[in-house]
Specification:
Strand content: 25-35%
CATH superfamily of the largest domain: Response regulator
CATH topology of the largest domain: Rossmann fold
Strand order of the largest sheet: 2-1-3-6-7
CATH class of the largest domain: Alpha Beta
Distance between the termini: 26 Å
Number of strands: 17
CATH architecture of the largest domain: 3-Layer(aba) Sandwich
Order of helices and strands: EHEHEEEHEHEHEEEEEHEEEEEH
Length: 251
Amino acid sequence: MINVVIIEDETASYEYLKYILELNYSPKLNIIGHSPSVEKGIKLINDLNPQLVFLDITLQDGNGFEILDHFSNSSTFEVIFTTGLKDYKEKAMDYFAFYYLNKPIGEAQLIAVVDKFLSKKSAFDNERFIAFKNQVENKQHKISLPMKNGDFVIVDIDDILYCEADGSYTNFYTTDNKIYTASNNLKKVENILTQATFFRIHRSTLLNLKHIIQYNKTGELTLSNKKKMMVSARNKTNFLRVLKLMNYSVS
């Protein structure tokens, strides 16, 4: 089941969207929250961690782009814009929106978009797990990290313990106890390392699975440098699946 949040300031539009989704996608989609504003929308996403957000552009206290700006370095959800504004499509796509729907939204159009989202998501998950299962015969053993001063540092991927978001930057923690701050956000780093054995255990932490030496059912894991970390409740199920596929021993 995919958890959904709707951020919409028009009550009638919200009720219509909710009705169509529940009519056609129960129990595939679970609508867990609704907000009419930017401020409350940000809090709702932080509190509930949805996988899909239906987002209006014009809201009570601002616009939907402000919400995406807030999560620009830690976004773990897909976005479907729902708006009456027809001149924002290009900007919406700049924010990597999954799709853009103009109001009034027809039921058939909405169903087509949601079906496409569900199909894409299933294919993506499957591809990701297969990659992990096969240990991803990664031919790229090194990564070049762009530094703040314009220099580049070349690091062995296997030597990276984990990556941690730091605003629009990412800190790389390595086995030799060094920390490199690269001028890429964590989402971009994750895309670069998608064919390596990395998994996002938390919205701000990307972990090299090769350095896990212990994991327990509370969600706590221990790395090869003895550091302990927690897997977020939201990511725990997929994390366990990945560990099993990679033949890790799970306690």
